């Protein structure tokens, strides 16, 4: 982990040569810093309505074979570069949504192109292994030099998976198996005949009525098990049978934080008391608590380090596992490689799930007892993808080379200060500005959120929402101060249109 943060600042900046068709802005000229991408546009360029005629035609064609009702925009990835995303009509937008927080080091990153063109990648793609049965001879080396190089402190093992939902569900499975293992008396105790028979009928004791505790407004995925811990939007859950699992209240902080210190502390304490009560009293015993460092889909809801420290203390004294879902917050977005590094925990989480910016997925753990006592208990054909693990290794190399976690911390502070100035100037559009000291993981509420997000493309910005009323920023790790200047300028333009 420390190696990710110890790169030389001498490598931080590469030369920037603006492309001719990009729109130059005075904001981009306010700083002398150079872009990490030599061919990145100097600013957004919008020449047609969005969607334009080519995008509309392509969307109509796609709709014949694929559901496009959630379509944001069809993208020309051959023309997208760095922080900028291009559509089919030649429009170039500053992308601060980044594929729902999933692009870490820029579109068409040259180093990742080299990784993708390597013989190692070719072998991984055309000989994709069933990892549990036939891992490649270099799989340990790939993990040690990539996925595990960035492992959270105290966690030195990994189970690789396909996506964020998959990562959470396999972590839940590990928690349930661990819980029952402890009840039986240890790792080496064999299953009873009754357990083996009743599980085939989906009955106890082989299939016990255990639970995972999550929080209101949480999002942990859309697969069958993870949906039972997702509490953010009804549309995610409708018509899908759900497990009888408890939910606790996530703190609802008041902003600005410095004006509501006592109230917020009382709110967090109330929520912690509720968590402990549910663990002790819920009719389906709680095997684990899962929490996001920032509730990303539920409205960008924050809590203090003290809250998470208290949560860790509760799980420890009640012998309940603590799972931190870093699918959206992980890999540098909050100005630290893992968002839970902000908490200064006395003991690490039991498991940390990851995906999105890692471009692969899985969960980290440290306790050997979280490895099931029998083979094939935590298993599927792919168990992840070596090709994606190679990409994550390349991402880590770029983060180290360009000191991108530190860049995100510095840029985030700069951007937040600029947004504070806008909030003072346009208070009717900025409520509950949050994310100070959290890198570029910034959000605010606005009464015209949907209109704001929809019209942002007209001023050259691709941006996203969260929850009912929040605008969320999810720029890439290569987002710099001159990009922040452009974003602030375009936000102000946008506020005059809505």
From TrEMBL:
Transmembrane segments: none annotated. The keyword Transferase applies. It is an enzyme of class 2 (transferase). Pfam families: Aminotran_3. Its cofactor is pyridoxal 5'-phosphate. One of its GO terms (biological process) is gamma-aminobutyric acid catabolic process. Its EC number is 2.6.1.19. Keywords: Aminotransferase, Pyridoxal phosphate, Transferase. It catalyses: 4-aminobutanoate + 2-oxoglutarate = succinate semialdehyde + L-glutamate. CDD domains: OAT_like. InterPro entries: 4NH2But_aminotransferase_euk, Aminotrans_3, PyrdxlP-dep_Trfase, PyrdxlP-dep_Trfase_major, PyrdxlP-dep_Trfase_small. One of its GO terms (cellular component) is mitochondrion. The keyword Transferase applies. One of its GO terms (molecular function) is 4-aminobutyrate:2-oxoglutarate transaminase activity. Belongs to the class-III pyridoxal-phosphate-dependent aminotransferase family. This is 4-aminobutyrate aminotransferase. It comes from Penicillium chermesinum.
């Amino acid at each position: 982990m420390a190696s990710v943060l110890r790169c030389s600042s001498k490598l931080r900046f590469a030369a920037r040569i603006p492309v001719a068709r990009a729109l130059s802005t005075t904001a981009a000229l306010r700083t002398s810093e150079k872009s990490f991408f030599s061919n990145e546009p100097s600013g957004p360029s919008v020449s047609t309505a969005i969607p334009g005629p080519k995008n509309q035609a392509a969307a109509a064609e796609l709709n014949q074979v694929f559901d496009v009702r959630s379509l944001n925009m069809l993208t020309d990835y051959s023309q997208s570069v760095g922080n900028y995303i291009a559509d089919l009509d030649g429009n170039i937008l500053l992308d601060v949504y980044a594929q729902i927080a999933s692009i870490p080091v820029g579109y068409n990153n040259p180093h990742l192109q080299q990784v993708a063109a390597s013989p190692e990648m070719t072998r991984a793609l055309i000989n994709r292994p069933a990892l549990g049965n036939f891992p490649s001879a270099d799989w340990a080396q790939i993990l040690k030099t990539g996925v595990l190089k960035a492992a959270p402190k105290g966690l030195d093992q990994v189970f690789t998976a396909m996506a964020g939902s998959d990562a959470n569900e396999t972590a839940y499975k590990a928690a349930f198996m661990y819980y029952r293992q402890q009840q039986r008396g240890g790792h080496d105790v064999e299953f009873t005949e009754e357990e083996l028979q009743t599980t085939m009928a989906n009955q106890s004791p082989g299939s016990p009525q255990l639970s995972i505790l999550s929080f209101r407004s949480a999002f942990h995925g859309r697969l069958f098990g993870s949906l039972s811990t997702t509490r953010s939007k009804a549309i995610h859950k409708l018509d899908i049978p759900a497990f009888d699992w408890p939910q606790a209240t996530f703190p609802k902080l008041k902003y600005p934080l410095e004006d509501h210190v006592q109230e917020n502390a009382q709110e967090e304490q109330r929520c912690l008391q509720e968590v402990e009560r549910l663990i002790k009293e819920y009719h389906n015993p709680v095997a684990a608590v899962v929490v996001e460092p920032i509730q990303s889909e539920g409205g960008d809801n924050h809590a203090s380090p003290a809250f998470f420290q208290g949560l860790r203390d509760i799980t420890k004294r009640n012998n309940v596992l603590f799972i931190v879902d870093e699918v959206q917050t992980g890999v540098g977005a909050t100005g630290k490689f893992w968002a839970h590094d902000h908490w200064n925990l006395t003991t690490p989480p039991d498991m940390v799930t990851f995906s999105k910016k890692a471009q692969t997925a899985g969960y980290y753990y440290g306790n050997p007892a979280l490895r099931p006592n029998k083979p094939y208990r935590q298993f599927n054909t792919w168990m992840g993808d070596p090709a994606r693990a190679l990409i994550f290794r390349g991402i880590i190399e770029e983060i180290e080379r360009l000191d991108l976690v530190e860049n995100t911390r510095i840029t985030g502070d700069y951007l937040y200060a600029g947004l504070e100035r806008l909030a003072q100037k346009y208070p009717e559009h900025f409520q509950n500005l949050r994310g100070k000291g959290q890198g570029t993981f910034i959000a605010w509420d606005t009464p015209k959120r949907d209109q704001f997000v929809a019209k942002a493309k007209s001023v050259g910005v691709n941006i996203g929402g969260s929850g009912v009323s929040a605008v969320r920023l999810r720029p890439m790790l290569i987002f710099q101060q001159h990009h922040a200047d452009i974003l602030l300028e375009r936000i102000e333009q946008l506020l005059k249109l809505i």
